[in-house]
User: Fold this.
Amino acid sequence: MATVHVSRHPLVQHKLTLLRRVVTEPKKFRELVRELSQLLLYEATLDLPLRPRMVDTPLAAYDGSEIAERIGLVPILRAGLGMVDPILDLIPTAHVWHLGLYRDHATLKPVTYYNKLPPVVDVDLCLVLDPMLATGGSAVAAIHVLKEWGASRIKFLGLIAAPEGVQALQNAYPDVPIHLAALDDHLNDVGYIVPGLGDAGDRLFGTG
Ligand code: PRP
Ligand code: URA
Assistant:
């Protein structure tokens, strides 16, 4: 079964509380998504393999290390876009492959409208980025695309999940670890996470 990591870091819990507030305006919302993404990335990359790298300091040779894996970021449009730049700040060599998916409001099923993956897998680890894991339909569809493409190591990074979404993702892809800032109570009858934060894409881009 896929491991679910829910951050217990005080900074994450503090910032997530501000993010949820209905009065948090898009500028502040984007800033908080940026900070939370970096804090979650820090925890989600604890197991990244290193290889040796010798460098010269001004005084001596230093037997150092560098990240051994090529990393791909796969933001699910739109809301996943808010997580890309802060992660690129920390992993500037990452490749970014956009996947466009939206939930049909009537069926809650994901509809794919954009896929810019290259023909050949060129990364070792894919980080799927989406702040919200609700029914899990979008995340499962995105990971299905990545598996068909040939990706072997995948992690999901999100901010808030519903138990229903975690269950769906675990059932479909038990090998994909899930990293979250919070696991909320339930989905309401129109598929929104409760207490949640509302529509993440609308709040990021001011389109509510
Ligand atoms: C939101 C969110 C996820 C999806 C989660 O996107 O960013 O992609 O819903 O719901 P699910 O787990 O039930 O699939 P949305 O479909 O609203 O698209 P948007 O980001 O373009 O607004
Ligand atoms: N998508 C969102 O942006 N928010 C939810 O609560 C559920 C899906």
Q: What stands out?
A: Residues 26-44 form the longest helix (19 residues). The chain has a mean pLDDT of 96. The CA atoms of residues 1 and 41 lie 21 Å apart.
